[in-house]
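4.2 Preliminary Data

To establish feasibility before requesting continued support, the project team ran the inverse folding procedure on a target of 207 residues. The structure was first converted into the token representation described in Section 3, and no sequence information of any kind was made available to the design step. The complete token record follows.
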């Protein structure tokens, strides 16, 4: 599986704000939005473009646009903090939604929302979820997408655990990963260490 760890001093500084337990909900949401911008820039760097003619006030020249604007899929709740910024960068993108809450005893994702186009063939999909821990939530989401014909999926995360990266690779699905860091691992509660805590709670308060 292809994976990209975005290595940039400004991304590292924003990640530090997210990790810092003193960052309140508003500061966390703000840093997540800004870091999402950097992750999306890198994630879309090699996307195919098409050329078209554009007139400036002075002359005619060649412009470019994305050949195929993607579908953005935030995984609720935590992915909601990424979708507004991603959509601002790619205004032509469509948006689908998946809602999952991890059962904190079994660590399995419990689905509560699925709002996706029926046919995803030929459409690049960017799944937005800041946390890739066991990988269960991301693999579940990718299965929903693959069932609808998706063959080009990018998981855009902020913090990934090696266990989650392995789960994505072992899933055999057509996915690549873009993340700001791959951390040390998971603790007994399957939280990422050092991580940043619960990305949903840190934006919106406890469920
Ligand atoms: O890789 P996994 O072990 O599946 O864990 C990662 C999932 O856990 C978090 O969501 P959570 O279930 O806490 O829901 P929330 O966004 O509503 O807080 C996170 O946003 C991922 O979706
Ligand atoms: O560290 C973790 C693991 C799962 N979900 C989170 O929000 N954080
Ligand atoms: Mg949570």
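Position-by-position output of the design step:
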């Amino acid at each position: 599986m292809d994976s990209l760890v975005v290595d940039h001093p400004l991304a590292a500084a924003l990640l530090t704000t997210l990790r810092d337990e003193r960052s309140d909900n508003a500061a966390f949401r703000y840093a997540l939005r800004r870091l999402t911008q950097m992750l999306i820039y890198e994630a879309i760097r090699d996307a195919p473009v098409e050329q078209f003619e554009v007139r400036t006030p002075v002359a005619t020249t060649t412009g470019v646009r994305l050949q195929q604007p993607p579908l953005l899929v935030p995984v609720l709740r935590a992915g909601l903090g990424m979708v507004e910024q991603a959509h601002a960068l790619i205004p032509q993108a469509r948006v689908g939604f998946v809602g999952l809450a991890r059962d904190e005893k079994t660590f399995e994702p419990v689905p509560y929302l699925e709002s996706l186009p029926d046919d995803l063939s030929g459409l690049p999909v960017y799944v937005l979820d800041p946390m890739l821990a066991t990988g269960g939530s991301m693999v579940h989401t990718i299965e929903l997408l693959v069932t609808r014909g998706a063959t080009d999926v990018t998981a855009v995360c902020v913090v990934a655990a090696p266990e989650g990266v392995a789960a994505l690779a072992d899933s055999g699905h057509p996915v690549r990963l873009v993340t700001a860091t791959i951390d040390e691992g998971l603790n007994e509660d399957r939280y990422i260490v050092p991580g940043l805590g619960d990305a949903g709670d840190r934006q919106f308060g406890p469920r």
